[in-house]
Amino acid sequence: MNKKLDVYLAGPRGFCAGVERAILMVQEAIKKYGAPVYVRHEIVHNKYVVDNLKKEGAIFVEELSEIDQLDRPVIFSAHGVPKSVPKEASNMKLLFFDATCPLVSKIHREVENFERKDLPVILIGHRNHPEVIGTMGQTSKDIYLVESKADVRKLSIPKNQQIAYVTQTTLSVDDTKDIIDEIKLYFENVVEPKKKDICYATTNRQEAVKNIAELSDYFFVIGSKNSSNSLRLVEVAKNYGSSKAILIDEIDTFDPTILNKASKIGITASASSPEILVSKMLKKIGEKFDLNIIEAEYEKENTHFKIPQKLKEAI
């Protein structure tokens, strides 16, 4: 008889509305225009999703210059792109669709608004992440990137200068709060975004992890190594009581025997990871253990983002 293992499932978990919309846009473009459809950068940061879309007829490129069939449609990823990218696509006479998450687009509009007001903008985010590159590319003026509280005091902006700030949507809610507090402490006149920039899905998934991390001998976050929202969930699990918090990006190579001395584990899936991967993980662990699955009651997310009308015609 297998050993019993309590499994705490975080909720909500898995796909958010922006990810669902982006994936659907690629699938509908393939239905409408046939294969191949080009996608600039991984549509979302998840290997399982990307591999499946490749099988359906998507070709992923990092730059538009890599596209060798200029009569095929191209889709920009959910992370958002600098303004130079649609401009380049127009110059190349490409048919393109923008799958930028509407919550990221909201930040792009904020940056434009601050530019019109001639305000220096501080961006709280991670250097070289595609969302950060996209946001910094919304203005011809300098955007000051800060990754930590220490970075705030290194900025070459006078303390009495009125400034504005925006944040990357997939950051740790706790870390971002600390950096915002530091900005307000250091600068005398700070213009805040109209709404908080951390997206609802990031906040909800991090809160769900906080609720069960300390109950878990091991905590598993199903997501990809290049996914900011996945890496933040691992950090949150560690900060809230689960020292053995691990990112799982390849379930097939996961060895359940590491759980031989465990009695309780926690599992979540990042906003870019499908629920099917949670099922696969449970099945793999269930081959060695008798699982007692505990899922707390939580409010289901009801946010939905529409896909462009031009692609809707294909449905």
What structural keywords apply?
315 residues; alpha/beta; Cobalt-precorrin-4 Transmethylase, domain 1; Rossmann fold; 3 domains; five-stranded parallel beta sheet; four-stranded parallel beta sheet; 11 helices
CATH class type of the largest domain: Alpha Beta
Q: Pairing-aware structural class of the strands and helices? A: alpha/beta
**SS strand fraction:** 15-25%
Indicate the low-confidence ranges by residue numbers.
none
CATH architecture of the largest domain: 3-Layer(aba) Sandwich
Summarize the structure in short:
By secondary structure, the chain is of the alpha/beta class.
Fold and architecture overview:
It contains eleven helices and 13 strands. It is of the alpha/beta class. The strands form three sheets. Strands 11-10-12-1-13 form a five-stranded parallel β-sheet, sandwiched between helices. Strands 3-2-4-5 form a four-stranded parallel β-sheet. A four-stranded parallel β-sheet has the order 7-6-8-9, with helices on both faces. Strand 2, helix 2 and strand 3 form a beta-alpha-beta unit. Helix 8 (200-212) runs parallel beside helix 9 (228-239). The mean pLDDT is 95.
